[in-house]
Design brief:
With about 300 residues, the chain is α+β, with helices and mostly antiparallel strands. The protein has ten helices and 13 strands. The protein is elongated.
């Protein structure tokens, strides 16, 4: 192998090792030699006596780029991870600055990372208690929770639960007002069922998409004279006489197909009793904007609060 002529010391740019400088013509003639050298250290290719290009291994390149990647995403890829989670999550650094936030949290807070926004800046009048909770969580306390008014709707309260992670905190956000709303609805529903049972004139049930009674309440048992075990395996239409069974089934199909709530007259069969003239109300059960997952049915004595749909 013909050794390459060394670059004269007078032409070596300041800060470079002469052993790692090569002209383009020499590089072409002895590429194998310089390729091996580039595997261990960058090789600088001269143009008119000055380094213009560099040849280096992938490993060295990745090592050189790693600090820039860490600066771009100080959480080391956490942005992509939390963004794949449907629940509202964000990360803050040791100064409570938001460094990563997923779409669900952005929808609640209206905040984005990267501009120095701190979590306490979003808390308004709750900044003091939140700062104290952040300090306790940063000191290693698990499950620290603080409540703040929603930056987007001051009538709603958000609960922030903080967990220590590397160089910061993972913050999970829940709509505390929504939880209160759910408890209120559940309490109202329970009271409604108790009132219906006390009146003895109406009943309700949840019906599956296949037409079976899924969740009969005690009022339906009282109205039909059937045990819970019997109702739980019964088709809803089988609770009515043959003359009105088809009408009830057709109304259920329309509700399931998306036609909305409807009401109709029917005759309810009563175990060991005379049939009852009733009004039947049917409404679709939806979870948010999702597809219909069942039917809610209400039955009342004829003359009570339903109208034909």
């Amino acid at each position: 192998m013909i050794p390459h002529p060394p670059v004269p010391q007078s032409r070596v740019p300041q800060g470079h090792d002469r052993a790692n400088l090569v002209t383009a013509s020499v590089l072409v003639r002895q590429f194998g030699v310089w390729q091996e050298r580039a595997a261990h250290a960058p090789v600088y290719i001269l143009h008119r006596g000055r380094p213009r290009l560099a040849m280096l291994s992938v490993e060295i390149l990745e090592a050189l780029l790693a600090p820039a990647a860490r600066d771009a995403d100080p959480q080391g890829g956490a942005s992509e991870i939390i963004d794949s989670v449907p629940s509202p999550l964000l990360l803050v650094d040791d100064q409570a600055r938001i460094t990563a936030i997923n779409g669900a949290a952005r929808a609640l807070l209206g905040a984005r990372p990267g501009n120095g926004t701190t979590l306490t800046a979003l808390a308004g009048t709750s900044a003091g208690p939140l700062a104290s909770a952040i300090q306790r969580a940063s000191s290693g306390s698990l499950g620290e929770t603080a409540e703040i008014a929603s930056p987007r709707d001051s009538a709603r309260t958000l609960a922030l639960t903080m967990t220590p992670v590397h160089d910061g905190l993972l913050v999970a956000i829940t709509d505390a007002t929504l939880n209160d709303d759910i408890r209120t609805i559940q309490a109202e529903r329970h009271a409604e069922v108790e009132a219906r049972q006390a009146a003895g004139r109406s009943a309700s049930a949840r019906i599956s998409l296949r037409g079976y009674v899924e969740v009969p309440d005690e009022s339906l048992m009282a109205l039909t004279g059937l045990a819970a075990e019997t109702l739980a395996t019964a088709r809803f239409v089988s609770l009515f006489d043959v003359a009105t069974r088809v009408s009830v089934g057709s109304a259920m199909e329309r509700v399931i197909d998306g036609s909305g709530a409807t009401g109709l007259s029917a005759t309810l069969l009563v175990n060991r009793g005379d049939p009852l003239s009733v009004r039947v109300g049917l409404a679709p059960i939806r979870r948010g904007a999702a597809s219909i997952e069942g039917v809610s049915a209400a039955i009342a004595h004829a003359g009570d609060d339903f109208r034909d749909g």
